[in-house]
Amino acid sequence: xxxxxxxxxxxxxxxxxxxxxxxxxxxxxxxxxxxxxxxxxxxxxxxxxxxxxxxxxxxxxxxxxxxxxxxxxxxxxxxxxxxxxxxxxxxxxxxxxxxxxxxxxxxxxxxxxxxxxxxxxxxxxxxxxxxxxxxxxxxxxxxxxxxxxxxxxxxxxxxxxxxxxxxxxxxxxxxxxxxxxxxxxxxxxxxxxxxxxx
Amino acid sequence: xxxxxxxxxxxxxxxxxxxxxxxxxxxxxxxxxxxxxxxxxxxxxxxxxxxxxxxxxxxxxxxxxxxxxxxxxxxxxxxxxxxxxxxxxxxxxxxxxxxxxxxxxxxxxxxxxxxxxxxxxxxxxxxxxxxx
Lengths: 198, 132
Known about the structure:
Number of helices of chain A: 9
CATH topology of the largest domain in chain B: Cytochrome Bc1 Complex, Chain D, domain 2
Order of helices and strands of chain B: HHHEEHHH
CATH superfamily of the largest domain in chain B: Cytochrome c-like domain
Number of strands of chain A: 0
Largest sheet of chain A: none
Oligomer: heterodimer
Distance between the termini of chain B: 37 Å
Number of domains of chain B: 2
Strand order of the largest sheet of chain B: 1-2
Largest interface: A-B, 31 and 26 residues
C-alpha cells in the first residue's frame, strides 16, 4: 500500500514535470525566443555537436555505398566540370574564392581541399547525393546522375594535389556546364525540357 | 623528498612570493598582446570573420569546432610568428596585405583572395594577434 502510494505520487510529479517542460517549450517557440538569424553563430558546443552528428550520420548511412576501385583522369576532368558549375560558388577551389555571399551562411560552406581527409569515397558520394539538413548543402540526386556524382568524387579526391594554376588550366580547357536547374533530371525529362523550350 | 618537504617557512614564503610575481607577470603578459591587438582593429569581429569566411576548412582555429583544416598552418600562435606567408616579416601591415591579397603576395599559392575589405583584414589581423 505504502509503496503504491509513493509510486503514484512520483508518477504524478513526473507527469507534471513533463507538462511544465512541454508548456515552456511551446511558450518559447510562440514567443520567438530562438534566434533563427544566420548572423547569430551557433555556440561552440552546439556547433561541435551538430558537426559530430552530421559526420556520424553520414558514416552510418554511407556504409552500404559500394565505391569504384579507382577513377580515370577523364572522370577527374568530368568531375571538375560539374564541380566548377555547381559547387565552386559555395566551396571555392585551390586559390579560388567562394562567392562573397557564402560568408553569410551559418554554418558556412567549407573549402574542400581537405575534405578527402574527413570523408571516405562512399561518404563523399553519399553527401553529394543526399545533402546535409539544416545547412545550405542541397541533395543532388535528382540533378546529377550516379555517374556524374562519382565524377565529382573523383575530382574531390584529386583536389589536394591540384595547384591554382592547374585548376585554372582545367577551367580554360573545359567550358563550364549549364546550371543544374536547366539540366533535366532523370525523371520527368520530357516535360521539363518542353517547359524550357517555351 | 625530505629536502623539498623541509624547506622551512622562509623558503616557502619566498616561493609563494615568486609564484605570485610570476602570476602577475603572466597576467600582464596576457593583457599586453590584447591591447596591441585592439590598437590594430576589433579582434571579436575578426574572430567572427574567420568563422564566416570558412578559414577553418584549411586552418586549425583554436577553440572553434569548424577549425580543423590541415591545408595551411594552424592559426594558434599566429600573433607570435616571425615570418608569415613564408616570406614576410610578421607586422600588422604585412598581415593585412597578405589577408587582402594572398595571390599577389605569393602567386599560385592555394589561399584564395577572399575579397576582404581593409577593415575586415584589420579586424582579422587584430584577432590573429590575440593568438600568441
